[in-house]
Amino acid sequence: xxWIVGAAVAVFLxxxxxxxxxxxxxxxxxxxxxxxxxxxxxxxxxxxxxxxxAILWNRDTGAAVSVLRSHDESVNTVALLPGGxxxxxxxxxxxxVWNADGEPRKLxxxxxxxxxxxxxxxxxxVASASWDGTARLTPLDGSAYRSLTGHQGNVNAVAFxxxxxxxxxxYDATLRIWPMQDGPAEVISVNAPLNxxxxxxxxxxxxxxxxxRLRIRTLDGALHEIETTPVPVTALAISPDEATIASAxxxxxxxxxxxxxxxxxxxxxxxxxxVWSLAFDPGDGSxxxxxxxxxxxxxxxxxxxxxxxxxxxxxxxDFGGSRGAQVFAACQxxxxxxxxxxxxxxxxxxxxxxxxxxxxxxxxxxxxxKGMDIVWTPETVSELFDVGPNHYTPGTKMPEQRITxxxxxxxxxEFLEERTR
Length: 421
Fold this sequence. Notes:
This protein is mainly beta.
């Protein structure tokens, strides 16, 4: 049986290694990771971030394939389409559809932040939940959307039942099941505001909210509760075999609940900051999580073992333990250093010092950068990270990321001078 995840209520630092192997942490965003999605074949991961971007990652190499930049504010929710397309929803209320080449097309705009996305079974309709108090069912062909109104306050999550009906969860402490055609929703009241939602292939509904409890509505209409953590739940995901419910909390914990027994099987703690997003790999069943510390982590959901480059036995090029190498770790997902490594989501940094902005061979720069009169030197690169890319180079594709400590910037410049010649 299959579960459809309908909510990710809301990027990364990094390691001192340049080439990320399979099963390593993914690092490169400049803000909290608000949303995650994994492709059906497990080859790609899409993340949305507080830094206003979404990043499409190559699962095997850990490299950023594309940085998607169209939103004015944080990207709160993401979805992957068949054929390589993508959908993002943002704090700016916008819905954006991207083709496989990363070209955006605006699909519409809510009057408040978009908190959650879900795709219909045929991938022709995107459902969006918004803090404007509504949800929408928007055809991807651009035809008129259907508005779902009735919630009293933020709509935080949306998903589809197997029969095509939409389900929403809101801060008004209700679940609502919407008919296929216009008409009033079936309203299911619970005892707490709801943040996250998931639906199984047999139509079982799982919701969670501010009191840390999972609420499971079975096919006979009964509502069961499972107690996990006393703090708010921020995201839900279900294993491909539907045996495990993963529940993330604002304290950084992840709870793995056995669906059959309703008991907590494992508790994972990967960070001290909130975990905002969860996604299972549909193939191998491993669990990905992203949150406030800007890192996407991975676990073996069966054992709770943390999957990382050491435990996975991968060999990578080690740049040593210098402070500059550690600071560069935040850049490694998008940039290479050596002459033969080529471009990633960002241009290669080989030969950067003395090079005019927007001139690295083979890289498709933003039009805004091509006309700028900047030559990269240790001083100009340091200033870029002091004030932030959006301020220093307006119109850039680069995720917003600052290095506020002068000593860290100096260490990075020393590292780059040595490694980019």
